[in-house]
Amino acid sequence: MPYADLHAHTTNSDGTLELDEVPAAARDAGVAVVAVTDHDRTHPGLDAPVVERDGVTLVHGIELRVDAGFERVDLLGYGVTETDALAALVDRVQTDRAERGQAIIDGVEDRLGIELGIEGRPGLGRPNVARAVADHPDTDYSVQGVFDELIGNDGPCYVARDVPDFERGRDVLAGACAVVGLAHPFRYDDPERALALTETLDAVERDYPYDDGVDADLAAVDAVARERDLLVTAGTDAHGRDLGVRGLDEASYAPLAERLREHAGGA
Prior knowledge:
alpha/beta; TIM Barrel; 2 domains; 8-stranded mixed beta sheet
């Protein structure tokens, strides 16, 4: 089992775990460190870059979607110290998330002729909508089926988000976080160009539970990390209780832990 799972979501965005449930889930998975990286927002229950909760280390993080020009990518910030610039960016993005979420909900309800019983709000993401559809008694969709047929990027109910550009997002995160890295490089249409973005980042996510059929060239990630002296991260991208599907062993986590300690000491 990994020692550190550095990519997990809670109910603060589109996960199903409450923050106070994370330590128990981590212990069940044999994980000692979990990074809480909710989409486009930090968790209000974490008041320091790194905290200890019930014997588990929680890293205060964020996953921020940005527009790199050629496509949208996700940045992972670790060891958050709140700043005015980050708060302003999060507020802007979450306002858009709420409006976009409501537009998706309206589209799905109109198309299926049902009421989902949810509404657009800060933190809401497409997985929330997909779970609501799958749980509705008048549908036979699976969560993945909702994405495939309704709300995926090419789906009839998809609504695009307004996101910051790469440079703005990177700079705001760099001012607030100990480490800023590129998430899951092989989820993008052009992984090579996505990996090129790490030239101005601190880290890259290596191990990740990619979908079947994804050609994740981990040797390319290792080469980029060596060439640019990047920290390597890894995580489950958990939206439920299952942690530790991917992560780092204790020795591999040590350089990131040191960077987090240095940042916390200067915060």
